[in-house]
Amino acid sequence: MYYLIKKVFEQKPVNETIIVKGWIKSLRQSKKFSFMVLNDGTTQKDLQIIVDATLPDYENICKLTMGSSVEVEGLLVAAQGKQPVEMQAKRVHVFCLNNEDYPLQKKETSLEYLREIAHLRSRTNTFSAVFRLRHVLAQATHEFFTNESFTYLHTPIITASDAEGAGEMFRLSTLPLDKLPKDEKGRIDFKQDYFGRETFLSVSGQLEAETFAVGGLGRVYTFGPTFRSENSNTARHLSEFWMVEPEAAFNTLEDNAALATGYVKHLIKKSIELCGDELEFLASRYSPDNLKTLEHVMNSPFETVTYTKAIEILQQEITKGQKFDYPVSWGMDLQTEHERFLAEQYFKRPTIVTDYPKAIKAFYMKQNDDGKTVRAMDVLVPGVGELIGGSQREDNYDKLVGRMNEMKMDVANYWWYTDLRKYGSVPHAGFGLGFERAVMYISGMQNIRDVIPFPRTPKNAEF
Hints:
The chain is α+β, with helices and mostly antiparallel strands. The chain has helices at residues 5-11, 58-61, 111-116, 125-147, 206-217, 253-274, 276-286, 290-299, 307-319, 336-346, 397-406, 415-419, 435-443, and strands at 17-28, 33-39, 47-52, 69-78, 85-96, 151-152, 158-159, 171-172, 199-201, 219-227, 240-249, 303-306, 351-357, 373-381, 385-392, 428-434. Helix 4 crosses helix 7 (276-286) and helix 6 crosses helix 8 (290-299).
């Protein structure tokens, strides 16, 4: 009977003859027998297989190299070492004998080099662990929002609207670049383009999600790819990334914060339950305190503090001798060092900062009565800083349009969005979580390029 190696360790069919398939991780040879280590990508555990020299093709089996693919039939028995079971081979069939120029070797390989061979890095212990964890976190996302009565919504990748107002968008066009059509004013005539107007890759599905939340479905979430042409070549930025964005009609900022808190705790809980081996391995290699930090976040109540109070705290700590690279003043956006200080050293637990200055936040956030702040929130976690950003959305038509005019936005281009504030408008709120940031945080990996299969960054679109 054919078994996935994960099922071998789960079901342990001891003293049964079974078949397994996979890639060779190592092969230690001797005249009387050899130890083959096999993995098929379904588990962090490797299966040790004893290959006796009496097998008919033993001489050729000994020529197998790391990465060669095989099918092995044999008897599963109780093991004497760390693993609960091992296999005694009766037959070895070779699918593919690896070439001598196989780029993966048994020795330690840098993560930078593995990014250059991203098509093979899933065969390593590190990346098989990361991407199994990513799968579990994706499934946990769908499970959480389904249990909270949200409907999964597929929002468009192609858009004519800038959801963030930042302008860092990838333009789409089928117009010939060497002969762009111009209008009577000498500008590019996008009426001749494929969609008859200027279009972009989406930076967020939020605005479209709001139409379904406020339009009648009540509670929806998006989970899909988004794109930003920000020229940031750092360990925390990607040009293509995945976003989780729930929107809930009738929710306030407080409801939004509670939803975000529950979501973060659910992700951590599921990762510990289903990826314990992966998390332990990654912690041993990249972040020794990661499991301790995750359990702390999962079991802690989240602190809540206003932005104004957070600035006061930071300024007071500076007077006591605390050093920051970036100055602290009301109206500035908090830097990662400030966020981490609040969560790690001051409150010593996850912290939700609310009511930011409207000047540094997006046009759609609900304005407070003070005229200076908006009902925004950031969820800060120890070890990273901001993990989630969200807000209660502006549900008043006049205030929304007024804010868009302040920011010199083309209100007519958002006619469908402002319509929501005219026809049965309700309080509503939502947030965004960069999925790769979450995978980074829970895995303990230090570079965002190592938690997405094929990273897209400035000057890099390989594979």
